[in-house]
Amino acid sequence: MIQSMTGFGKxxxxxxxxxxxxxxxxxxxxxxxxxxxxxxxxxxxxMEIRSLLLQTLxxxxxxxxxxxxxxxxxxxxxxxxxxxxxxxxxIKDIAGKLNIxxxxxxxxxxxxxxxxxxxxxxxxxxxxxxVVFDTVKKAVKQLCDFRIQEGAMLQKLFEQKINNIAQxxxxxxxxxxxxxxxxxxxIMDNLEKIAGQDYDKNRFEQEMIYYIEKxxxxxxxxxxDNHLKYxxxxxxxxxxxxxxxxxxxxxxxxxxxxxxxKSNHAEMQKIVVQxxxxxxxxxxxxxxxx
Length: 290
Hints:
Structural class: alpha+beta
Number of strands: 6
Largest sheet: 4 strands, mixed
Distance between the termini: 11 Å
Low-confidence stretches: none
Number of domains: 3
Mean pLDDT: 86
Strand order of the largest sheet: 1-2-4-3
Helix content: 55-70%
């Protein structure tokens, strides 16, 4: 079964002093375009995370985030008391020398000063990392499951649209007979107008053959039918067929366009327009296929 490139996964792990949430989302892209946001505590494990994502996700514009919410008293973010005291003393001295009032809200002023808030770089121990990495794997699996579900919906859509085009193609034959008769009648009318005049019959036959071959659409119909069947069989080959399906859709478009240029019939032109409408919906969605 085909898979979509679109997906989302979010899993939270609860540790003694924090909650770690893994969030990963993917959109369509020609190749794997990976961006990560990883807190400093797990930064040394970034290559391990990237390796997992590269092996599992294959293609797509992927955003990977780790969020930490501290729930205990222990936190790596601390207020630098020495810096606060130093800034407080300096501001008071400056206010006295310049004869200006001191801040009405000391805390708001002091906490905005540089280096007042400091973060201690703490490395996660192996036990914690095992829990976090297992959570990463669960989030990735959740995204992959989402892709499979989306892929099933896309497959149904493609099968429906391809069947619609095939049905429209079968309707062409009805108007094709009428079209040939009209062309013959028009040629006969023109021949009557030149009755009794001398002309090169061999050249005339050559021109007639050329004209008939130019309007013949049997080859285009056969090729279009083959492309439609090939599209369906490629879907059944499973995931990883997105680019191939895109190429086949382009070939279907070429045959539909040729049918339109050769049809020379109002009802057949309407059928071609309907085919193009169905095909455009396929082309739009095939960009999402992995």
